[in-house]
């Protein structure tokens, strides 16, 4: 293993697989919540603001 | 690790949202605005709802809406930013489980995202211009989310499962939403001419493909760069 990558490898080892899984699921859920908020929210003002984003992304809009 | 994800997602989302806004301003939004001229010129019959007596569930005059021009551009940019950062967060989260080997892997992740969040849902629910008749919104959103979820799991199984049977299950998951079928309106009708609708479909698909390719490439590049630092 080249010395330059040793640091990142030790960092990766220190976080266990289950820890990484929890963070990955948490980050994914947060990301999907953001997409839901902008693309699927039924709040009228949010719909109007992100209207063109929704149509362009082919999210169900009206 | 959380910092790593946040940084990757933040910068990727910003760049991809700017690209998306640029492409939209040049091609997609002009088509939407053109379609809206047909919508506002049409007689005041509520084309969205099926019950003749139902009140217009949309176009609430009370609610705030951006004015055409810079307000609309700004709020669309904001919408793009939120969506792009959201998608980038999902990509960066997946990278912590499967680090991308290079830019080619990043492009593949981007194309997978395009397939999950755009291609598969549009097979049943094509991109629509304002003023197009469609089935109940909640039902369509439900089908859309179900299709995206099934496609994501299906692609994941096909790409990563070691067991052949699981790969087959993945392929089945890809097909199921389309066998069930997307909710359709009772009558297909659109206010905008068909040529405009067709151009909009192409514009939307190509714009989204470019957006997802950028998301995949930028996110994998940033993620790897930080891993090496």
Automatic annotation (TrEMBL), chain A:
Domain of life: Bacteria
Pfam families, A to Z: CbtB (PF09489)
Residue ranges crossing the lipid bilayer per the database entry: 21-39
Alphabetical keyword list: Membrane, Transmembrane, Transmembrane helix
Entry annotated with the keyword Transmembrane helix: yes
Protein name: CbtB-domain containing protein
Native source species: Pseudomonas laurentiana
Upper classification of the organism: Bacteria, Pseudomonadati, Pseudomonadota, Gammaproteobacteria, Pseudomonadales
From TrEMBL, chain B:
Annotated InterPro entries: CbtA_put (IPR012666)
Keywords, sorted A to Z: Membrane, Transmembrane, Transmembrane helix
Transmembrane segments: 73-95, 102-122, 142-160, 165-182, 202-223
Coiled-coil portions: none
Pfam family, any one: CbtA
Protein name stated in the entry: CbtA family protein
């Amino acid at each position: 293993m080249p010395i330059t990558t040793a640091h990142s490898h030790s960092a990766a080892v220190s976080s266990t697989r289950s820890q990484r899984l929890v963070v990955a699921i948490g980050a994914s859920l947060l990301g999907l919540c953001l997409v839901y908020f902008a693309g699927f929210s039924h709040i009228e003002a949010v719909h109007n603001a992100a209207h063109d984003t929704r149509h362009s992304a082919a999210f169900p809009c009206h | 690790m959380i910092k790593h994800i946040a940084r990757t997602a933040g910068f990727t989302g910003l760049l991809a949202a700017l690209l998306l806004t640029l492409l939209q301003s040049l091609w997609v939004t002009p088509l939407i605005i053109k379609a809206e001229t047909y919508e506002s010129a049409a007689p005041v019959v509520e084309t969205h709802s099926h019950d003749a007596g139902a009140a217009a569930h949309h176009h609430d005059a009370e609610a705030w809406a951006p004015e055409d021009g810079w307000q609309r551009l700004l709020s669309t940019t904001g919408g793009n930013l939120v969506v792009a950062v959201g998608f980038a967060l999902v990509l960066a989260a997946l990278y912590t489980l499967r680090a991308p080997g290079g830019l080619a892997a990043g492009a593949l992740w981007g194309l997978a995202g395009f397939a999950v969040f755009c291609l598969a849902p549009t097979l049943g629910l094509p991109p629509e211009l304002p003023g197009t008749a469609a089935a109940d919104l909640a039902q369509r959103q439900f089908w859309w989310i179900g299709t995206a979820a099934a496609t994501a799991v299906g692609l994941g199984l096909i790409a990563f499962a070691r067991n052949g049977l699981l790969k087959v299950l993945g392929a089945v998951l890809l097909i199921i939403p389309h066998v069930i079928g997307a909710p359709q309106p009772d009558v297909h009708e659109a206010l905008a001419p068909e040529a405009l609708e067709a151009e909009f479909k192409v514009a939307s698909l190509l714009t989204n493909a470019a957006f997802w390719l950028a998301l995949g490439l930028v996110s994998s590049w940033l993620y790897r760069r930080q891993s090496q630092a």
